[in-house]
Design goal:
Length: 256
């Protein structure tokens, strides 16, 4: 098998959370272009993503679920639906996430819990359920978590987001330590400043946007396609010996 053939995901089944827009949609499309069959999970319909993926000749299963208060048993139901439909689960991309902005002195318990539930708790328990299915299949698998620049930095006015994304980086290493022996690679991607819904307020603030761009060596906001390539790599056989690593896709932000 050549190096390019190892990038192929033909016939692999990939679950992508938060697949309706932004980075999730971009990664779902990238995985589909590499040959994967896609399961898109979001709290709203991901019809646009479905249309785009079917247009390139792949298959798409839509699952609607809100991860803000989801129980572990519901993840088991989701995985069973995927296995019933496609026969296996080979790739999980834990992309769904939210952010709440407020000064730390007045940050609410609800904003703390909501962000931690989606960004950290759901990542762990969905990964746990999927890993059990992968072990049952005896064919290994790839779990890719979406971390952040705030997995490395403190940020301003986003305490629960920083805590959750620091947790993602940590549990990625923890799960990798335990599951590598089963042929399961657990890694993460830390996007930099991306042009998505989560950063709209920052991009609309001319002064803040200018300050951010001045620090990015690449000189631009990232796009979903920038993360899609990293996702396909980590999902492919070319990443078989990469375990527990968080890959920054940040235009050089952390190196500045």
């Amino acid at each position: 098998m050549t190096i390019l053939e190892k990038f192929s995901l033909k016939g692999k089944v990939a679950i992508v959370t938060g697949a309706s827009t932004g980075l999730g949609q971009g990664m779902a499309l990238g995985l589909a272009e590499a040959g994967a069959l896609i399961v898109g999970l979001d709290y709203v319909s991901s019809g646009e993503t479905k249309t785009l993926i079917e247009k390139i000749g792949s298959q798409y299963q839509e699952i609607i679920a809100n991860l803000i208060n989801i129980e572990k048993e519901e993840f088991e139901v989701i995985v069973n639906k995927v296995v019933d439909h496609f026969g296996s689960v080979d790739i999980l991309v834990n992309n769904a996430g939210i952010i709440r902005r407020q000064d730390a002195l007045v940050f609410s318990e609800k904003d703390w819990d909501d962000v931690m539930n989606i960004n950290a708790k759901s990542v762990f328990f969905f990964s746990q359920v999927v890993a059990k299915q992968m072990i049952k299949q005896q064919s290994g698998g790839k779990i890719i978590n979406i971390a952040s620049m705030l997995s490395y930095q403190g940020g301003i006015r986003v305490p629960s987001y920083t805590a959750s994304k620091s947790a993602v980086k940590g549990i990625t290493m923890s799960m990798a330590n335990e599951w590598a022996k089963y042929g399961i690679n657990v890694n993460a991607i830390a996007p930099g400043y991306m042009a998505t819904n989560n950063t709209k307020a920052l991009r609309d603030d001319e002064k803040r946007s200018g300050e951010i761009l001045e620090r990015i060596p690449a000189g631009r906001w990232g796009q979903p396609i920038d993360v899609a390539g990293a996702c396909v790599f980590l999902a492919s056989k070319n990443a078989d010996y990469i375990h527990g690593f968080t890959l920054a896709v940040d235009g050089g932000w952390l190196g500045r």
